[in-house]
Design goal:
13 helices, 51% helix, binds guanosine-5'-diphosphate, globular, 3 domains, alpha/beta, binds magnesium ion, Rossmann fold
């Protein structure tokens, strides 16, 4: 199938086309950017929700329950699981698998897991581009599940409209981990495994910590207790997502924020495009090989080499003023 056919398939809601396009992105096929370029004219109202938290904290279980609630409400939902330990990606015990099956045969749900391999930035890069494709398909909600590993959380947040941070009580160093930066990113905090005896205490410690933080966009992030395995507290989480969505959509500087996000996205994609083009084109250029020779024989240093080539590539118009 040609890229154009894939794109029009996605626009028409063809799940097979979406699946194929996601594989192209996942395999870092050289045509990835070209494929994505075709989806750019699609405006969707998909609300993207990132769910992050340590492995085993219950993200997939919570998602499973959220999917059910959202489907009961008649809305469609895409799930991108970039957590390698996720039941969605096959690491499930049998029970989890069986529970997922009810969704995979439902046309209003599309679940895709992404492998955690890849060259540069790997996972994070894939998931950003995959999310673009999923949004182009036009689900009402897109959920992105990621395991808590640091930089990825920040990427998830910047690609999400609502960011849910999941934590579990009882491992002693929870609060320390939370202090290590995760308090900056959540719009909603969920303390899962509320069947654990320390859950309430843990949640109130978390609330206290959050209270000392400056508000982002005038939103005060709630701390919610859930027992994902039996669904306790999950409707309240969905309600909080909807409240956050309402809040964000009603911000007076919403338009400026969106423009800023678009600009960041544009710059990020430009960097990617430039990098991929340079890698293809440079080795065949005589100027590049000449500079490389000088570099190899220590006639110049890498910084001077870079300056020569960058000036050459960017030409006068884009050179910094002297
Ligand atoms: N006791 C208890 N177990 C839970 C709860 N939520 C999830 N689990 C279990 O924790 C394990 C890991 O859950 P999973 O959703 O795969 O976690 P993930 O790695 O964050 O996606 C599974 O065996 C779940 O059944 C909960 O609220 N209470
Ligand atoms: Mg999971």
């Amino acid at each position: 199938m040609k890229f154009g056919e894939l794109v029009s398939g996605i626009k028409k809601g063809d799940r097979l086309a979406l699946g194929k396009a996601l594989s192209i992105i996942e395999n870092e096929d050289p045509g990835s950017l070209e494929l994505l370029a075709g989806t750019g004219d699609i405006k969707t109202s998909t609300w993207t929700v990132g769910i992050t938290g340590p492995p085993g904290s219950g993200k997939s279980t919570l998602l499973d329950k959220l999917i059910k609630l959202i489907r009961d409400d008649g809305k469609s939902i895409g799930v991108l699981a970039v957590d390698p330990t996720s039941p969605f990606s096959g690491g499930a015990i049998l029970g989890d698998r069986i529970r997922m099956q009810r969704h995979t045969t439902d046309n209003g749900v599309f679940i895709r897991s992404m492998a955690s391999r890849g060259s540069r930035g790997g996972l994070a890069l894939h998931s950003r581009e995959a999310a673009c494709l999923m949004r182009a398909f036009g689900f009402d909600y897109l959920f992105i599940e990621t395991v808590g590993t640091g930089q990825l959380e920040l990427d998830v947040m910047s690609a999400s409209d609502t960011c849910i941070v999941l934590q579990t009580p009882g491992s002693g160093d929870d609060i320390q981990m939370i202090k290590a930066g995760i308090l900056e990113i959540g719009d909603i905090y969920v303390v899962n495994r509320a069947d654990h005896e320390c859950a309430v205490e843990f949640a109130s410690a978390l609330s206290n910590d959050l209270e000392s933080r400056p508000l982002r966009d005038g939103w005060s992030p709630p701390v919610m207790l859930t027992v994902a395995i039996d669904g306790t507290g999950v409707p309240a989480v969905l309600h909080a997502i909807e409240e956050h969505k309402k809040h964000m959509l009603s911000l007076p500087d919403r338009k400026e924020k969106e423009e800023k996000k678009l600009e960041e996205e544009l710059l990020r994609i430009m960097m990617m495009t430039i990098e991929s083009r340079l890698k293809k084109v440079l080795p065949g250029r005589s100027e590049y090989r000449a500079v490389m020779e000088k570099l190899a024989s220590c006639e110049i240093d890498p910084y001077s080499a870079s300056k020569i080539l960058t000036n050459l590539i960017l030409k006068e118009d884009f050179n910094e003023p002297a």
